[in-house]
Automatic annotation (TrEMBL), chains A, B:
Species of provenance: Maritimibacter harenae
Highest taxon of source: Bacteria
Gene3D superfamilies listed in its UniProt record: 3.10.20.30, 3.10.20.880, Domain of unknown function (DUF4445)
Sequence intervals crossing the membrane: none
UniProt cross-references to PANTHER family, sorted A to Z: IRON-SULFUR CLUSTER PROTEIN, IRON-SULFUR CLUSTER-BINDING PROTEIN-RELATED
Any one GO molecular function term: iron-sulfur cluster binding
Domain 2Fe-2S ferredoxin-type: 5-109
Pfam families on file: RACo_C_ter, RACo_linker, Raco_middle
Protein name in the entry: DUF4445 domain-containing protein
CDD domains associated with the record: fer2
Amino acid sequence: MAQDPLVIFTPSGKRGRVPAGTPVLDAARQLGVDLDSVCGGRGKCSKCQVAPGYGQFSKHGVTVAPDALSAWNEVEARYDRIRGLKEGRRLGCQAQILKDVVIDVPAESQVHKQVVRKRAEVRDIVLSPTLSLAYVEVAEPDMHHPSSDLDRLLGALKAQLDLETLEIDRHLLPGLQKVLRKGNWAVTAAIHDDDTPTIVALWPDFFEGPLYGVAVDLGSTTIAGHLVNLVTGEVLASSGLMNPQIRFGEDLMSRVSYAMMNEGGADEMTRVVREGVDRLIGELVAEAGIDGDSLLDLSFVMNPVMHHLFLGLDPYELGQAPFALAVGSAQRMMARELALSVAPGARAYVLPLIAGHVGADAAAVALSEAPHRSDDLVLVVDVGTNAEILLGDTQGVMACSSPTGPAFEGAQISSGQRAAPGAIERVEIDPETKEPRFKVIGCDLWSTEEGFTEAVAQTGITGICGSGIIEVVAEMRMAGIVDAGGLIGSAEAVGTPRCIPEGRTHSYLLWEDPDGRKITVTNGDVRAIQMAKAALYAGARLLMDKRGVDTVDRVVLAGAFGAHISPKHAMVLGMIPDCPLEKVTSAGNAAGTGARIALLNREARREVEGLVRGIEKIETAVEPRFQEHFVAATAMPNAADPFPLLRAVVPLPDVEFNAGTPEGGRRRRRRG
Amino acid sequence: MAQDPLVIFTPSGKRGRVPAGTPVLDAARQLGVDLDSVCGGRGKCSKCQVAPGYGQFSKHGVTVAPDALSAWNEVEARYDRIRGLKEGRRLGCQAQILKDVVIDVPAESQVHKQVVRKRAEVRDIVLSPTLSLAYVEVAEPDMHHPSSDLDRLLGALKAQLDLETLEIDRHLLPGLQKVLRKGNWAVTAAIHDDDTPTIVALWPDFFEGPLYGVAVDLGSTTIAGHLVNLVTGEVLASSGLMNPQIRFGEDLMSRVSYAMMNEGGADEMTRVVREGVDRLIGELVAEAGIDGDSLLDLSFVMNPVMHHLFLGLDPYELGQAPFALAVGSAQRMMARELALSVAPGARAYVLPLIAGHVGADAAAVALSEAPHRSDDLVLVVDVGTNAEILLGDTQGVMACSSPTGPAFEGAQISSGQRAAPGAIERVEIDPETKEPRFKVIGCDLWSTEEGFTEAVAQTGITGICGSGIIEVVAEMRMAGIVDAGGLIGSAEAVGTPRCIPEGRTHSYLLWEDPDGRKITVTNGDVRAIQMAKAALYAGARLLMDKRGVDTVDRVVLAGAFGAHISPKHAMVLGMIPDCPLEKVTSAGNAAGTGARIALLNREARREVEGLVRGIEKIETAVEPRFQEHFVAATAMPNAADPFPLLRAVVPLPDVEFNAGTPEGGRRRRRRG
């Protein structure tokens, strides 16, 4: 007898001999090839489509004959007639292997497809969602062998798809008998398998899917969500809205105070933030135009205070030392428990918090940026009201948070504003003339370019946003307008009439309207940025101390705001440690990406949970060196750390303006 | 060095040597002795109390010196001062073993105590409830090692009591931080361990318990409940109320019809029965005078239609062949899911159904009567509107149900009524004079005894209840008033003026008021009883066929009604197979007992689930021989089966009254 035919699967390269007549799907399963199937080989779902290759494959050492696979059978022909089979494709459950053959499994037939990410330094996301669909044909009731409809459904899932010890959501039981009869004893189940494999939805007969999920980044200011196709990983809709809790306080601590001062205040904030999330999900479903019944999984990231408020836990203890979390571990629950008006079987997954001030958003950043998988030492800073800082590599990861305050978001800045059309976001100052040029959000032209005035006529020039204030202060430092200690020089000292006195200090005039409205950078603004950046740097430096290093190999700026910060300017200010500029990258909304990864990959949930358990948590409030680092870091870039790499590429004039300020009489040590 | 001291525990007899200085509790754990402890040896709970024996124990071969145990320490002295320690008792966690000693573990210090049942033929109930209390001292938050309050609580349970991988009910999280601080970082947790060990309630500091449970027998007519102390097994309160569903139909099928005919009818019945159960639980809590927060476990038994309605499942399919259950397996859920206003952490356990007509009540009867553990072949009949019948022994158990109708409950009987004061419940008829005497519920005197008239003046003599109708018909058969075929003879044929014509048949006058109101047994009444008992017997006979036997070793009559049936009369009627009369016993409310067992013993839940899976289910509706057995069983006792054991002890006159009835012309074969 001849040898059994050889089957080679691509792209996996898995190969083996199977008895002639083995369906491709069975061969794939035997060889551990990732080939999808919802209907268990009944020719219904077409998820197991493969592309056989014919002819000579010298690479694999086989020649594939035209009759290597069985001819189309009735099921395949019928499928093609009704639903159309792509040229060159076969149904893996129907086509039988007769002779040596090379079978390509296209990406869409793989369960564990990869979603390619744009940035080179990060891993692709492998799809491995908690949800899958399963089509089965259920035995009808038989009075000679009485059994419940549920038992026969579970029996079919076991016998036909090898799915064992399934639970079923109780909410499905009242409709179970009708669904089975409506589908004429065929049914498609959505199975959620995170900790306990559970049937969470049922459709009569064959339901093709796909199923959807929403990843939510629940910030103190904005709530952002992405609606994702769980089969392809594709983002179908993205949306954001203002966190309606803002009316109880702009920043987190004022919300905690509200909860402490007002009976029922925490519950009220819980209610409104859940309503906000619910509204956002509704918008995403509408925007994507999907059936809400197919939206069955949600993932959430947020800071500790938002976490407690969203889960209905009083944030009282987070408002005072020792900042004890009620609950920090990852939470799995029914989405309905969060008062969300989603399908009754929808699940919610809340990523773990790291510590009282380091949230699930930081955990999500860690999941996305994977410092624990990095061979070089990486510092990840999620820049926001509260900076969350990670430092680590494969040998270990540490985390802390640092109270930067809202200056980086344009608050506490005299001309500061949120990033919105009309806000100055980029600034350059000529080191010779001390003349500025800038760009505003909503316009691609520099302020000195022709047509700028017309282009911004609509929005106006309304203020300076977070990234703009960082750039302008850094540019002022590089142009010698402000000294290392943070003092703005006078018009005479600097040599430009743009330095205008304001009380006992000076301001730098960035822009003046034809009607005389000015946008200036005051010395108070510089002070606010100094405080914020010093806090951020001191946190990072503290982790570096703990790790026993003076430098890091690379820096990742995360956070929606981090995406807009210029690495050079951040380093001139001394926000981040000295480091080659090309080693400073932006991760964009890494927290949102982490939430999306947790939605698309069940193993990633275990990974982030293990990662968070393993992270060394540093509480800056109890570290005596934090204060010391903070004081040194108020200088620009720093009064203690030399920043040689920065100085090699950027001029940092050695100016000093010690007159006309409250501290004027004190001689300060300079390194600038 | 001398040998380690020997410790002998009674009553278990477990013995071993332990290093001198070992606390008794530790020794007990090492030797696998069942000694309770809630506080993990902190001298708080006193659950580990033991009674050391001193002097010579020749049986054990040891002499116990007065200083065999360490002297009282401060903890023990303090406990005694504040709470009082019984004479001769020691705290097992404090007293250390210094020399050879005999230690008695009193019943109240055992977790797995036995609850002795009154009937000799059944097992005692071993206590092994799903709920236990655990006292721990939790570490305070530490900013140097940030962790959540929950993590520290779970860590304490693991470190101090070896309780691992606990879940916690989400409803406890909002109050967690307050409970810990209120108890000054000491807390008592109630842990429910059925499938997943879960914290279901928390009390600040030390909470002594006990915890309570309620076992509910949810019948179509009445809902009965017992409130039980889960530590002692003691029943603290029992109560019952009318099933408020009765207004939708007396019998189950009329309720199913109501659900089929009325939009929302099933939901309405679900609501009212849950309200009924809720009211019953409220009454039990009030009667027992306990704190409702300590009531944390509920068990339920009921027939399939009540089961579906109670769980919110439409009973539609149960109203028609093939009688498919939606769900039959045991159900575990939060009691709140059943809209019961109990403690938020309270759990509900619903015993499994056996088949479409054989309910969780029958499963509970099986758990209580344990045919699967019986060496002799036992027939268990739960007599009610629908008789549920079990036949089996250690080799296997079969089950079926038989539609007896409500005649046994006094319905469809001309003078029938529910069992209530004034109802005739016992009857004797003199075989010579054909004169009856009877007893009514609420009076211990026979109707012929002096003072009877006065004694029943209050209640009157209002009708015949179920057990009364069985007795009177059986007595009429033994007295030759009714023949084997079920015809009542005329006054002339029988020889008593109590046989009075009524249409073309006769009635037997059981009682006549001074004012002329009569209580009679009509030939229609006899017919109704014949139909009911024939259905019951045919079901039993069918199982015997399947098992391949003509006789059974013993019969157990279960059901509240079964408790009142006289075995002799039941056998004269041919309700149950021929069998030595002393082998017919009553199990009382075995379904309720089964529910109580499932409440008190977690292993019993697995046992009943395995038992139900293993039971061979027989659907009488599809068994051709059922009809044949039914026809033969309409005769009293039976037209086919000879009943030799019965005939040996009871006269069954060979009379025949074939005139004056619709069937009068047909000659019937008699065996009487």
